[in-house]
Amino acid sequence: MKENSALERLYNGILKENPTFVLMLGMCPTLAVTTSAVNGLGMGLTTAAVLALSNLLISLLRGLIPDKVRIPAFIVIIASFVTMAQLLLEAYLPELNEALGVYIPLIVVNCIILGRAEAYAYSHGPVSSLFDGIGMGLGFTLALTGIGAVRELLGTGECFGVRIMPSGYVPVGIFVLAPGAFFVLAALSALQNAVRNRGSASAGGARDKGCGGNCLHCPDIEVIDLNGEEQD
To answer: What is the C-alpha separation between 32 and 30, in angstroms, rounded?
Structure first.
């Protein structure tokens, strides 16, 4: 799979460099709006749309944007898409727009979007930049929706507004409060990292053919002491 292929960019954003669970970016909306799965899904998809479109436009204009003013140019482009997204939410999804509140305008300064514009879109082609934005956006959406679903399920017994827990279940109210966001984020991050590390270890084990990771006593590695002399 090529480094900048569409599938590679999607995989990178959703799993390998998930902006929430791996890079720990965008923590403000992640912790604030994920009181329900619907809020997490709405915030994630809105951010994903802005991220993908801004990546595409910045990549198309990268030859015209002077290097010295690239950050202000990025912000203007991102702010334009955020304004359009907020107007659409106000017109067609007013309840969601009210629930997300100030966090929609704050997408303008979301470090995920600015980071991808600076690190990727400004130096790569339009197609790969578009899919990089889609991948990162989907990773962010899945993370927010997952956190919101767990918090809603444990805190109210529902998920997407549908009753899941039995009638005798007593909701744990702390999960829909601020501390619950930290608990769920920590648990899901640990789970995601455990799965990712297990996959990396399996791949590494197959590649190394049984290497135990003890590099100090590896016969294939030459050790050099402080005097610059090779040691056996």
So the answer is: 6
pLDDT tens string 113-138: 999 999 999 999 999 999 999 999 99
Q: Are 150 and 135 in contact (CB under 8 A)?
A: no
214-228: pLDDT as tens digits: 544 555 545 444 444
CA 225, CA 201: separation in Å to the nearest integer? 30
Q: Residue for token digits 């608990």? A: 183
DSSP state string for the chain? --TT-HHHHHHIIIIIT-TTTTS---HHHHHHSTTSHHHHHHHHHHHHHHHHHHHHHHHHHTTTS-GGGHHHHHHHHHHHHHHHHHHHHHHH-HHHHHHHGGGTGGGGG-HHHHHHHHHTGGGS-HHHHHHHHHHHHHHHHHHHHHHHHHHHHHHHSEETTEE-S-TT----GGGGSHHHHHHHHHHHHHHHHHHHHHHHHHHHHHHHTS--S-GGG-TTS-EE-TTS-EE-
- Single-letter residue type at 90: E
210: alpha, beta or left? (left if phi > 0; alpha if psi -120 to 50): left
Q: Is 81 exposed, middle or buried (0-12, 13-18, 19+ CB in 10 A)?
A: buried
Q: What is the Rg, in whole angstroms, of the alpha carbon atoms belonging to the chain?
A: 22
Alpha-carbon distance of 85 to 44, in angstroms, equals 12
